[in-house]
Amino acid sequence: MNGWNASDIPDQSGRTAVVTGANSGIGFVTARELARRGARVVLACRDATRGEAAEELMRAQVPGADVRLAELDLADLSSVRAFAAGLKEDRLDLLVNNAGVMALPHRRTVDGFEMQLGTNHLGHFALTGLLLPRLREAGPGARVVTVSSGLHYLGTVDPRDVQMEHRYRRWTAYGRSKSANLLFTHELARRLTAEGSHVVALAAHPGYAATNLQTAGPRMEDRPWAERAAELLNRLVAQSAEDGALPSLYAATAPGVRQDDFFGPRIPFWRGSPAPSPRASWTRDDRAAAGLWAASERMTGVTY
């Protein structure tokens, strides 16, 4: 694993991947590098205009790339269902649950969920459940990679207040949604192991990577000083989106990965080549994971 980079990605010819949030940041890089190695990649994007621009850029950077744009709004369960029903590819080998929002002011999804939990966890929970039969059919090598964050340490899901109805704090809500990603992965891995499935569920995080995540919240609230501060920190401290995508790409393609693995940068939560990442003990709590799973089924109406 030492020094692993995109040139180490095994040949992906014959494999099909879905990457959510593939129009920018680490999602764009993840999709592009999978396509560069021969995968057919479905670019699952919320904004059609930005998605089309990303597809055009990807084709320019990887001539002959086998990519297709498809609309997916994770904050709208009807969109999630429509995407899954409309997936026309013959097979699905890889699902990268990458899209996300960070530290937004309080907002709700179309279905009434707190936006960060709804987008980062519930939308992906529903999507994975709807696509899992396709992944099971793909044969050995199928994987579900869910992108979490080192900031999952900010807090775990409170079963008494899953959506932070009583006191919303944007960074705590973000941390809880990222803990939810890891709890989801933990329970999915347990279930796949119990059924003897060849599908592997694991997680990754980019460390501190320069993407538009850091500026979206301040821009939404018209806080230009906070937006400029985030941009300055990105330039001074963050690693590039190219490097931030490496843990996701390692989780998606490297041989020898195991159920419930979690990869991040070698310098924990910051930068470097992919390596096993520390994680909060609560993200391996069987009872908490099962409880979140049951709540997620109730909230989304998607049962596995």
TrEMBL record:
It comes from the Bacteria. One of its GO terms (molecular function) is oxidoreductase activity. Keywords: Oxidoreductase. Pfam families: adh_short. Gene3D superfamilies: NAD(P)-binding Rossmann-like Domain. InterPro entries: NAD(P)-bd_dom_sf, SDR_fam. NCBIfam families: PRK06197.1. Belongs to the short-chain dehydrogenases/reductases (SDR) family. This is SDR family NAD(P)-dependent oxidoreductase.
